[in-house]
Every structure is written in structure tokens, then in C-alpha cells.
Amino acid sequence: MRLPDEFFRLLRVALSPGVSAEADLSSLASLDEACWRRIAACAKEQSVTGMLGYALESLPENTRIPDDVLYYLLSEQEITARAVRKKQAVSKAVAEYFEKKGLHPIIMKGPATAAFYPAPLMRSFGDIDLYFPGNEFREARTIASGMTGIEDAGDGSFHFNWEYVDVDVHSRYFDVHRPDKDLPAVPSPEATILMLSAHAMKHACGTGIGIRQICDVAMAFRSLEGRYDVKCVEEAFRKAGMARWQTLLSSFIINHLGIQAPLPKGKTVPDTPLLKIVEEGGNFGHHASGRKEALGKSTAKRKADTVKRFLKRLPFSLKYAPSETLRNVASLTVGNFKKKA
After folding, report:
1. Among residues 12, 207, 254, 269, which is most buried (max CB within 10 A)?
2. Does 338 score more than 80 pLDDT?
3. Residue 64 located in a structural domain
4. ∠ CA 164-144-203 to the nearest 5 degrees?
């Protein structure tokens, strides 16, 4: 679904309250009902309904919003806040559980990035991601062996259920095929930025990426400004083979979200290729044509659909993340060969 300019205006207000110029909002006062319903539909596809609710109080007093859209966005704001409170409590409890066992879990992605937002309760997330360094991952797997619903994933991670919340446990902090010695130390502001960007890149080159994960990167840049070494981050992008990707991502963030982000290539580039992916599938590509039907089928058919989408995205991947794309293909080939052997 195409994202109208008005959607981005509201999003900018939510992400940067008090910063956006009044002129950026004045045109919203005259929007018709169809436009408002389109904005609400876009917010749902991109999983940012909780964010847009925070922008409503900044609108001009004479703004006319259809009652059903207004109630929907405000109720989604409250629903998101309640869900985030619960999952933040669960993430804290899970981390403390492993810490009492002598381990050092690092909370990643959703639960951690929520702190970067103007209001942490606006950033919805589904599961909880934990990273354990070195040999601690195996120890964590042993400790979690008795957990409800524990299951190993194909990428080497495992997950289990804690108070009806899915917890994903990872042995890799970065979604890139590079030795840790070439990448920023974990934890650090530089590592957080690279991890979030690499996570977005992985999904953009795969089944798809939505605006929420791009907002995470933007919020990290702004929240961690002055705490990370710009040259170190740009060098990390280069070593990880992500310089082209990050230039595209930063261009998108600057152009659509109004937030400054480092540009490894020194200047912005047209961001249409990334915007197309965002609009095509929404949150993690779940709204792309045929994806919902594939997710409801067998594991083999879901994987086949994922491979099909990965292959479809190859022209984009080879342009913006060539070395990582080739390593992904090699990794998948070796993995399938071992399974057949």
C-alpha cells in the first residue's frame, strides 16, 4: 500500500514531538475521511498505530478526523502501551533469571530499542530477543531445556515461552557473516547501531521490511548521538559490506523521517528502491501478495515462499548488499548440501 505524505507527516510528529514545523501539520486539517482511513490502514500494515496515536494531540484544533479513525488510533495507542508494559516486565524477569544463573544476557531489538523513542510505550513488539556471548549460549540452552515450548530454529537460535510471550535466544548479535573481531564490541552504542541496521537489511533483502524497523535505526542514531564514534560506525559498515545499504537507509531516514543519519558515501541517494519494499509488504513483508496464505501452510511451503521472495529480491540485494548476499547464498547452499549428505 502506497504511503501518503500525510502518513509520514504524522509519523515525524510522533517521533519528534515539538520539533516539526506547524506548516508540516496545517494541511492535515483539511483532509477528507478517505485520506484519514487510508492513513489508519497504512499504520496498521506498518505496525505503527501505537505511534501515530501520540501525534494526534499535536494536530491543529480545527482538524476533522472521522470518529472511527480517531477511536481506532487512540485505542491502539492504549493497547500498545499495555502490551509493551507486560513484555517489558517479562523481558526484565527473563534476563534476571539467567543472570541469577551466572550468565550475561543482552536484550536486543524491540524491548531494547523502545527506550530510544520519545515515549517507550509507543514502540510495539512481538517477541523478546536475547543474546548470550561466547559459550554462554550453550549454557543458556541447557538452562532453558525445561522451559515451555522450547524449540530450536534453523539459524542456530532457539526459543521458548515465558508467561505467554515468545523469547528468542541468539548466539549471534549481528545478522552479517563477518568475524566478531571485525565488528564493534558488544555491548556498545556502535554495536547497537550496526545490529539494528543489519537486522533491517536482512529483512529488506528477504521477505520484506516495514517502517517500524527503520524507525528503530533512526531513533538509535538520535538517542545515541554523541555517544557513538561516527568514524567507527562507518568503518563497521564498510567491513560488514553494508556501506551501500546504509547510505540507502540513511537517505530514507533523512528524507521521510526528518532525522539525521550518517551517510557512508557522503551524500543522500534516491531511496525509491527501499520505499517500494516498505510499501509492498509492510511489517516484515507480511502484507505482500500471497504471503499471508503462505504463512498459514506447512513449514516446507512457508520456506519455499521465503526462498521465492529472496530470489525475487536478488537485484536489490546484489546492488546494496552484494558481499552479504553472496555469503547468504553460499551458506544456504552448504547447509542444504549437508542435509542431503
Report:
1. 207
2. no
3. no
4. 65
Would you say residue 194 has pLDDT above 80? yes
CA atoms within 13 A on the CB side of 285: 22
pLDDT > 90? residue 332: no
Q: Residue 260 sits in which domain range?
A: 183-341
**The C-alpha cell of 188 is what?**
556498545
Q: Are 219 and 257 in contact (CB under 8 A)?
A: no
Element housing 129 (H / E): strand 128-131
DSSP calls for 141-176 = HHHGGGSEEEEE-TTS-EEEEETTEEEEEES-SSSS
State the Cα–Cα distance between residues 326 and 318, nearest whole angstrom.
8
- pTM higher than 0.90: yes
Residue 302 lies in a domain: yes
Residue 290 counted as domain residue? yes
Number of domains in the chain: 1
- Is the residue at 98 inside a domain? no
